[in-house]
């Protein structure tokens, strides 16, 4: 199974869930859950987009990820009974399939392939998170930006990454100006082109080779 496939639930499982669990409709900006909630459950983005992040004491929002159709969240609440680590809000009008703990357990008995997929998916997400932590410590910002865009492109299987520069700055944890300057560097190198609300990667193979060279460690 390709790395990117482990970010999005297989469509047959989504189809089965639609007849098994409720689909909740959220308007843009509506809260799905807040940091600290303990209620366990699995959420699957059926349509639209969901942003996951946290608010600082100063009210500034820092987005961690923008989730698209097929992506899941809430796994830690099920497997480790941990509280929610982030706020989840609808970034656009969205539909989210919601399985509480009881429904999840029953569904997994009927569809054990879900548990197997989730374990592989969590392993991939943990791997990517460790890579990201290493990048923050070692790499200049424009290389981190390139790796982030490459990761997002892989997850969507598209060379066009639908993301605004302020959203990218949140993901990178830097100012919008810093993110903009990094994108300008990547544009001047010929790795990307920038549009309104999106960034096009000229060649996945080229940007992958370039980021591996810049990382100065053995590729995995």
TrEMBL record:
InterPro entries: cNMP-bd_dom, cNMP-bd_dom_sf, Env_Response_Regulators, RmlC-like_jellyroll, WH-like_DNA-bd_sf, WH_DNA-bd_sf. PROSITE patterns: CNMP_BINDING_3. One of its GO terms (molecular function) is DNA-binding transcription factor activity. Pfam families: cNMP_binding (PF00027). Residues 5-104 form the Cyclic nucleotide-binding domain. GO terms for cellular component: cytosol. This is Crp/Fnr family transcriptional regulator.
